Amino acid sequence: MHLSVIDISIIALYLLATIVIGLWYRKKARLNKESYMLGGKSLPWYLLGLSDASDMFDISGTMWMVSLCFAYGMKSIWIPWLWPVFNQVFLMMYLARWLRRSNASTGAEWLKTRFGTSGKGVGSSHIIVIVFALFLCFGYLAYGFIGLGKFIEIFAPWDSVKAYVPFNVPLQYVPEFYGIIFTLFAMFYSILGGMHGVVLGDVIKYVIMTAACIWIAIIAVMKLSGHTLNVPDGWYSPFFGMHLNLDWSKIIKEVNQKIKDDGYSLFGIFFMMMTFRGFFAALAGPAPNYDMQKILSTRSPEEASKMSGFVNIILLPIRYALIISLTLLGLLYYHQMNLKDATGAVDFERILPAVINDFLPVGLVGLLLAGLLGAFMSTFSGTLNAAQAYIVNDIYVKYVDPKASTKKIINMNYLVGIVVVAIGVFLGFFIKNINQALQFIISALYSGYIVSNVLKWHWWRFNASGFFWGMLTGIGTAMLLAWKIDVSDVLYWFPVLFVTSIAGSVIGTYAAPPTDMAVLRSFYTNVRPWGAWEPVKKLVMADDPAFVPNRNFKLNMFNVVIGTIAQLCLTILPMYLILMQKVPLLVTAALLAVIIIILKKTWWNKLNDY
Fold first, then answer.
1. Nearest to residue 73, comparing CAs of 331, 314, 268?
2. I need a labelling partner for 63 at 20 to 30 A (CA). Which of 115, 270, 526, 598 fits?
3. Sign (positive/negative) of CA torsion 430, 436, 438, 439?
4. pTM (2 decimals)?
């Protein structure tokens, strides 16, 4: 074990702080249901944005992105479009405002504002979104759990630890054992402190990570000075053709096998399919997870937009400074690292912990470990908070005990939190690696979610029955494909999923009467969406001739396009800076400055419009 007393002390202080946060906010979180799940809708947008960014700065995702950057270089900036990361731009420009106007507590509760509380399919639509949300939460918990275990295993080899453990742990389950230990800390402060505890924990973690990222970036620049990276042609360029054309055979031949296993060799086709799917996924709005909960926790629709924009600004430069720095050190010291797992296979997801363990100074190791443990905890706590909200608010209070007291609701949150964590940990035992978990969440779950959630915003005739059948056919088909074929290939089947979901949505919609017009008029008046709302718009304007419909479609889409370019600039800027690529750095900075000036006029100054 390579941790010094200073490093261990820093980590111990951070873990102690998480316990103090849970105890400190326990009383405030117990005031009422809204205070526990949404922080009383009193937290400022910049704190919620910082918290949301911290939730996205997860340990598993960072390990995965370092392995991508190592293999694909600058082209790796496109692969997170699988999520898609540019959904934050859609939220920033208009969707966060639309969502926040509902005043709901969860995504399932939001459906009441769109489909009402009675009619064919309303109950089913409510249940299907809860089921999806819980699948998503369990998937994220298992994904974070397995990443944490692999991470800790590097720093605490089992041979050094097993003498202090009073029972035997099989070697293949050592990562899971470590995952369970640190999951208990995250569970403590997130269950006791509610949203207030989650946000404060995220803020502390972000400060730690920022300090560590700046420190490691300085080290990476100093190490690179006077050296040349041994990488294939095209590694420094973000641009690509139909084929990836990165040949590692004369440098590190195992990387070629990774690229083949990832399925990204035909990068042009992969990019087109990813962008096609990503556009519709972004139009669908946020999935019912921690991101949605943070938007619903803001004080106003305008602050919801500001929060979503702020996430990009504070997350991307810091995160990618860390990613490129660790990648750079991994390339320089590759032959001195042990990246083999328990089976003897090279695992590139181990680059991040291996670099930290072997090549960083005392103090920085502890700081970075505390920050990355915090990254796991913030993702974990945000996901757990969302799962509790769905089970307690949308199942227990709605169907089991509608008159439950505040004390009973809070106690139920505690119980549900423990059960959800147990299920997430159990599922983590069946996941081989981070990429497998990630591909399942993105390709299977998200792909089935898209069509119904695009139509709910943009088509007046779409009803609860259509929502249910669209979600059921989409998710069912995606899960079947993920079971029958390699999960990384599900993306290429998205057109099939898309058509299947559309068929389910349209057939389900016309199999039931339209949503009550009073509900639609209320939704249209409050949310003010653009799209196929003409019949509803005519009725609203007949009652209120002064009503001004939303004509911002072109402006919103323009802002989305240049906002996505700005997001890419924020991603690649720290990479060019640390790699000392002067001309690309200046071009990127100039482009970003121009876009900021434009968005000040076309977005910030118009936040109160529609």
1. 331
2. 270
3. negative
4. 0.84
